């Protein structure tokens, strides 16, 4: 069993008609993750790039799409994450959030589990 900290990145494809609802969704999940012992680093929604910016590595990078939002949260280890996943559906506040957003305010999502580089966290 792994005992290293884990971070989950969730990348959402936004529905532009549901931006306000997505923001409500994000605030609810920040509360829940933190209540269950995780650290939520936030939901990040698209914004315009600063003017006169360039790509650091021409030919290798590109500007991202304007309908993608990202959430980052973490748990101290795999066991803490598993405990959160088991206990979450049993919690009345979490159940209400899950029911409220049964029809999600985004088009799709993907997630990836990450670990910090050695010597971090």
UniProtKB/TrEMBL annotation:
Output the InterPro entries linked to this UniProt entry.
Dimeric_a/b-barrel (IPR011008), NIPSNAP (IPR012577)
The source's superkingdom equals Bacteria
- Tell me the SUPFAM superfamilies matching this sequence: Dimeric alpha+beta barrel
Signal peptide range equals none
Q: Which residues form the NIPSNAP domain?
A: 11-117
Family annotation (Pfam families): NIPSNAP (PF07978)
Name of the molecule in the record = NIPSNAP domain-containing protein
Species of the source? Sphingomonas panacis
What's the source species' lineage? Bacteria, Pseudomonadati, Pseudomonadota, Alphaproteobacteria, Sphingomonadales
